[in-house]
Amino acid sequence: MAIVSRKFTATILSISLLTVMAGAAIAPALGVIKEHFAGQDDILIQLIVSIPALFIIITNFFFRTLCKLMKTRTLAITGLLMYVILGAGAFFAKSIVVLLILRALLGVSVGMIMPLSTGLLAYYYPPTAQARLMGLSAAMNQLGGVVATLLAGLLANIQWNYAFLVYLLGIFAVILVIAFLPNERLSSKGSKISLSNLTKFHPSVVGMLLLMIIFFIYPTNFAIAAHDGTSLSNNAITYIMVALDVVAFLVGLVFGDLMKKMRRTMKYMAPVLFLLGYACMALWGNVPALIGGSALIGLANGIGVPYLNTIASIKGGKDSATTVMPLLSAALYLGQFISPLIVLPLGNAIFGSADVRAPFKVGIIFCMIFLIQVYLTRNFQSLPPQKHPKES
Known about the structure:
Blueprint lengths: L5 H14 L10 H7 L5 H19 L2 H7 L2 H18 L6 H29 L2 H30 L13 H11 L14 H6 L1 H14 L1 H13 L4 H20 L1 H7 L4 H18 L3 H30 L7 H28 L6 H20 L15
């Protein structure tokens, strides 16, 4: 096993920096993209954000095979190069069909690197360090969201397709991986994604699915709802969405300390904060409510993702990269993909298609389901004291 160094840690975290950009980074540009593809169904426009998730899921279920065919550095470089080429390639798309095909193939690339972004932390670091590192991984994920969301929103003001140039940021991760990631082969012993694994890890897997269904209501609906329901400019909407990622980033930085101080209540924090956030946006919908709701949703996401990753990685041990992490990755992106397919029809059926805040009201319903799932399945087990790994 390679010596753990700061450069090595930074390399793994650079992959985390990119994974959120698969879908949510383009969210601020949806309003402009919708105007360009006027007449296309709203579901097709929202699929621009969510379709990568479906292909991430499919790729995750072949991750064990990919690990047999390629060592870690080869796998990471292949996935990252595809990420840059296919992501930025959407700049040249002339039709909604071509755009969705490129977005789907982008999902394949993220499916190759997503399990590595958290699984390598479980493989190289002891359980005592994993809460802190999963928090940092989530923080880098959100930092990527901050940078990419801001750039995509600003670039979309030039022209809708300029937003996709944010994927060129992946070049920096390619350089780090080539320089510092060891080319080891991950163990495939006991790594088959099976029903028994799903049964063993179902509290985290189902929790991640619900968390992403709830969270993705925000990036797929906020820009459209804010544009239709307020006088906010496209830039102002972008800044609010960026602020959500900033909040989640800051929470990720202190997540290890939060886990030590709030062991018994941490499991309830994400569903409760999501509930409060969507309640603000559903009940009032004015600018202060949208800003406050966004902040609460940022807190919820910043706590929920590293919490589920930490619990699962400690339970999965050194084989987490090829057992539970692909399952969590699949659940995360399945939630992203099905969120608009479930939420929009439910909102129209229950609250009417004219209600621009209907998706946020559906979000409240799913928050209650999430809270019940946590109560019924999550028996918190004490974590070992959090210590930093020795870094050279």
